[in-house]
Design goal:
Elements (H helix, E strand, L loop, with lengths): L5 H6 L9 E3 L6 H15 L6 E4 L2 H6 L4 E4 L10 H7 L4 E6 L2 H9 L4 E5 L15 H12 L8 E4 L7 H7 L9 E3 L2 H4 L4 H12 L17 H18 L12 H10 L1
Helix pairs in contact: 6-7
Length: 262
């Protein structure tokens, strides 16, 4: 897989398809990181596209970036507290999380957004702790709805034009959905990065073909369900739907009475 140089991709004019740019380079020396980040900053700033530096708080400060994105072990940070002390109140701080406990800790420590993953395996992230799939993302989204402060969330890891709609739809929790996705090779390795970014943006914001309406999973709290009983019974009486009843010996009488009542 060949990734195009960062400034060249941005200069192709991918705005407004891309809403945030993150510079991630795990191997280059500090001087090269600063030089490249400065080039990216020059391109991003006129378009009001935030530039986030992965891992390196020092590089973010050197180029006056809009923020940093921290993994669970980057620069020794277990939370965003130390980063906030170094960066001040205005810089954006994102944190990668792969469990509900990590997500809650990051929010309470002051993270401005969460990168949830890794969703699928990906060659651009070899230090993966866990593969979450959409079910794992949904579990984290569902859990953080109880946290007092609401933060944006994006899915990270192995996302491309073939699976982005599936990720956006199948990860929806009862009261929260993803705000977007983070991609690397889906854009950076594309022959036409602008077209690739446009397609991803379009797919991520449209309901998938296998559903009429992209909506969260139905509410299953007991009180909410009880409030719907009268309307459901009336609807059944008005429409007289065909009911194909499958049962077993344990509940056959109960199931038969329910079917007859319809």
């Amino acid at each position: 897989m060949t990734l195009q140089p960062h400034p060249e991709v941005l200069s192709h004019g991918i705005r407004p398809c891309v809403t945030v740019v993150q510079y991630r380079d795990k191997h280059s020396d500090t001087g090269y990181l600063i030089q490249t980040a400065q080039s990216l900053r020059t391109i991003c700033k006129p378009h009001a596209v935030p530039l986030i530096i992965n891992d390196r708080v020092d590089v973010a400060l050197a180029v006056d970036a809009d923020g940093v994105h921290l993994g669970q072990t980057d620069m020794g940070y277990q939370d965003a507290t130390t980063a906030r002390q170094l960066l001040g109140p205005k810089m954006i701080i994102g944190v990668t999380v792969s469990s509900l406990a990590e997500a809650v800790t990051a929010i309470e420590a002051g993270a401005d957004y969460l990168g949830i993953g890794t969703v699928y395996t990906t060659p651009t992230k070899e230090d993966t702790k866990a593969i979450l799939g959409t079910a794992g993302v949904r579990e984290i989204l569902d859990g953080i709805t109880g946290v007092e402060r609401v933060v944006p969330t994006v899915a990270i890891g192995g996302i491309n034009a073939q699976n982005v709609q599936h990720v956006m739809f199948k990860s929806q929790a009862r009261r929260k959905r993803l705000d977007g996705v983070a991609v690397v090779s889906a854009v950076m390795a594309a022959n036409n990065p602008k077209a690739a970014a446009q397609e991803l943006r379009k797919l991520a914001t449209e309901p998938p073909g296998f559903t009429i309406e992209s909506r969260p999973h139905p509410v299953t709290e007991v009180n909410d369900l009880l409030r719907r009983v009268d309307a459901v019974v009336k609807d059944l009486g008005d429409k007289h739907p065909l009911c194909h009843n499958m049962t077993n010996l344990v509940v056959q009488n109960f199931a038969a009475n329910v079917a007859l009542s319809m």
